[in-house]
Design goal:
globular
Length: 229
């Protein structure tokens, strides 16, 4: 099937899925299929009850509720993609930007034969900037890689970033609390470095979303860009 048609169908499915499970769907869904990655970015996604909670400062409650729902949706999404795109999703990441009413899903799949070249200008400089952000939050990552999936979608993957106390918290069952804390810290640091990132990328960074797989000691960052040239 044509790639553009697949992306549109997957966007429609994601919109329906969110609407059926959250009670209201996003205002827009944008899917990029670029092997071995699938990214889904959605906008204008905030329920009236969530807005009321946010107005009262209950950000963590909204995040926890969404995280609980996602535990059931991830397997459903993987099943749909296996049936319709014929790849097995091996890694799944998600995050929300409640302030901008946006969110993302990032999936890495098993099709390693059709990998596309995602290199771009100033890639190594971008990696250095990400290393500095990570050093401030945890430690220098063992590896940073990045992939410009289209002109507006930059995926960054970091490996080997966790310090020992974080690993111990995961072992003790505090994974959810660690996620909530790292969401706040790392996004704050990335926003502090946003001007440098924009100069390197020659693009306005309009959104930043971050997720982790603590058991793999791996993290994804999705930058939504608005090219200036």
């Amino acid at each position: 099937m044509d790639k553009t048609k697949l992306e549109k169908e997957l966007s429609s499915y994601m919109g329906r899925l969110l609407r059926e499970n959250f009670g209201r769907g996003p205002g827009g869904v944008f899917t990029v299929i670029s092997p071995p990655f699938i990214t889904v970015y959605f906008k204008a996604f905030l329920l009236p009850l969530e807005k009321a909670l946010l107005d009262k400062g209950q950000v963590i409650y909204v995040q926890k509720t969404r995280d609980l729902l996602m535990e059931t949706l991830i397997e459903e999404i993987k099943g749909y993609i296996k049936l319709n795109i014929h790849v097995d999703i091996e890694e799944f990441y998600y995050d929300w930007n409640l302030e901008l009413q946006s969110g993302m899903f990032i999936m890495l799949h098993s099709d390693k034969e059709n990998i596309i070249n995602h290199s771009y200008k100033n890639q190594k400089l971008l990696h250095k900037e990400v290393e500095e952000v990570t050093r401030k939050a945890e430690k220098l990552p063992q590896d940073v890689s990045s992939y410009l999936l289209d002109e507006r979608t930059l995926l960054i993957i970091r490996e080997g970033i966790m310090v020992n106390v974080e690993k111990e918290l995961v072992q003790l069952g505090f994974e959810e609390n660690l996620t909530l804390a790292k969401r706040n810290l790392e996004k704050k640091l990335l926003h502090e470095h946003s001007q440098s990132l924009e100069v390197i990328l020659d693009s306005k960074v309009t959104d930043v979303l971050v997720a982790w797989d603590f058991h793999k000691d791996k993290s994804t960052i999705l930058l939504i860009l608005n090219p200036t040239s």
